[in-house]
Amino acid sequence: MTSLTAEPTTSQEFFFELTRKQLTERLDRNFRATQIYEAVYQQWRDDFGSITSLPKTLRTALGRSLDIRLPEIHRSFDSDDGTKRYLMRLADGELAETVFIPDGDRNTICVSSQVGCALACTFCLTAQLGFVRHLTAGEIVAQVVMAQRANIDPAPDSRDHFNVVLMGMGEPLHNYENVMKALGILHDESGLGMSMSRITLSTAGLIPELDRLTREPLLPKLAISLTGATRAKRDQLMPINRTYSIPQLVSTLRRFPLKPRQRITLEYVLLAGVTDTDKEALALAGIALSIPAKVNLIPLNESPDLDFKRPSENSILRFQRILREKNVDAFVRKSRGTDISAACGQLKQNELTKEIDLEALKR
Ligand code: SAH
Fold this sequence. Notes:
- The chain is built from eleven helices and 14 strands.
- The chain has helices at residues 20-25, 30-42, 56-65, 137-151, 176-187, 207-213, 231-237, 246-254, 278-289, 313-325, 349-362; strands at residues 13-14, 66-67, 73-78, 84-89, 95-101, 107-110, 114-116, 131-134, 162-166, 199-203, 221-225, 264-270, 293-299, 330-332.
- The strands form three sheets. Strands 3-4-5-6-9-10-11-12-13-14 form a ten-stranded mixed sheet, with helices on one face. Strands 1-2 form a two-stranded parallel sheet. Strands 7-8 form a two-stranded antiparallel ribbon.
- S-adenosyl-L-homocysteine is lined by residues 123-124, 167, 171, 202-204, 225, 227, 267, 269, 298, 300-301, 344-345.
- S-adenosyl-L-homocysteine binds at residues 123-124, 167, 171, 202-204, 225, 227, 267, 269, 298, 300-301, 344-345.
């Protein structure tokens, strides 16, 4: 054994941070890491003592040096539509927000990649927090494991019934290394064994990182947040557009390697009087037709802290019709979990932290 000793250690390493290769390097027998991965990710063991396939001394040593417990759920919220929102307390007290969206066999776990976000999109509440910090790979993996264990039937034929979307707080490509490491851990065949077709990475379009992504062995499905199909509109709504313009983004996406029949999703938030005009619809159609793409229209999830409004049902449908007339596949996304502020763009923990502080004061 290299670094796993029976000596008590002062600081434990977080288990979910370790790739199977890293775990192997800490053990004396190669197959042990595989056994441990299977026990934790497939049999949902949450303490080393219960992994009886391991020798007792090893279980003790592992328990001393690795922390296998999932972070505590600080708060959770249940929506009337079944959506659940979790605030998971991290080692330094920050909160990672995770959303579970049930839908028959196609459940979705929406995870955060950062606390806060640096991109300052004007229609998104997370932006109002600013950038707090990147999440580690283990903190991203732990969100998936936590939401899976809390909501999914553990039987081998149903425990895989979920997809993961990186659409929570943060810009995943701004936290490139940790996100890619987390995807590797989620993909591991001895762990959750998630195929990349079950994982969607959503980005505002960081071009150097998109280029870098094309060279990765593990490529998740890609969603691009467009919201603004002309330069003037997108500059106003997503400041990243002033660095990486729409034509640059489009040419990068045209080079992006796709599997047969696979398409890139363009996410487009509909803001009344701003992004729901005919001019934007026609520009959006032009963009979508120049890439293998489909369009997800997301009517704004409103908040008193945002200066925009959701368009009427009629304008949403009219906008969709213009795209369809141009032969663009365009779908209107149902909002889920709005009553618990769990919908797209509504994750903003500080208002809740305030609420929690008030509750603490009352006691
Ligand atoms: N930073 C990444 C992922 C987080 S945002 C990205 O930009 O893709 C996830 C999705 O929520 C994005 O498509 C974003 O455009 C959308 N969104 C943000 N604020 C919203 C709001 N108030 N209402 C509806 N969708 C919103």
